[in-house]
Specification:
about 190 residues; mainly beta; four-stranded antiparallel sheet; 12 strands; globular
Length: about 190
């Protein structure tokens, strides 16, 4: 459920005792998300918000689940064919515990671009990766982050007035990993 704060920032949560994900959004501040346990009789929690970064990624979208805040951002909300699109993907562990990420190859992440007529591009499609299994621990409140860019090709923009860019970790639970790909997905939309 959602609630608004008072002028001094206080708020009340009306929920059953147990585990919940608390998400706080405020204009000019970065999204704050954490897993909390509500116990009967507890009535106070201090939350400190961080100022939103002004790093050039003006089109950002965050997704919150039980383990992560996944964010995908582009440097603009609108592009033309031939433009370079700068992308940042971030995954922050809010689970309250260290999590094991298992990668079945040297590929750690991927990006896909979909228009109204379907998929037009996948970041990994023309790349080769070492075929070696590896793991990485993402400590609680630690962030995995990548920045990359790609060119918006002429053929992609035909009959596609907008695109959905998806970023995710190329993880697998098959090798004992605690995290599945769907938990790491983040989406951002942009127009032509």
């Amino acid at each position: 459920s959602a609630t608004l704060t008072t002028r001094n920032g206080t708020f009340e949560i009306r929920a059953k005792a147990g585990n919940h994900t608390l998400t706080v959004r405020a204009e000019g501040f970065a999204l704050h998300a954490q897993n909390i346990t509500l116990n009967a009789g507890e009535n106070h929690m201090d939350i400190v918000l961080k100022r939103q970064e002004t790093d050039g990624y003006t089109n950002a979208h965050e997704m919150v689940n039980n383990h992560f805040v996944a964010e995908l951002a582009t440097d603009r909300q609108s592009y033309r064919a031939g433009d370079k699109i700068s992308v940042r993907y971030r995954l922050t562990n809010i689970s309250g515990q260290d999590l094991t990420l298992s990668f079945p190859s040297g590929q750690q992440y991927d990006l896909t671009l979909d228009g109204q007529r379907g998929r037009v591009w996948t970041w990994s499609q023309d790349k080769s990766f070492i075929q070696a299994f590896s793991t990485q621990t993402l400590k609680t409140e630690e962030t995995f982050e990548i920045e990359t860019n790609f060119m918006l090709e002429d053929a992609w923009v035909q009959n596609n007035p907008s695109f959905l860019l998806t970023g995710f970790l190329a993880v697998s639970t098959d090798q004992g990993g605690q995290v599945g790909r769907e938990e790491t997905e983040a989406l951002v939309k942009f127009a032509i």
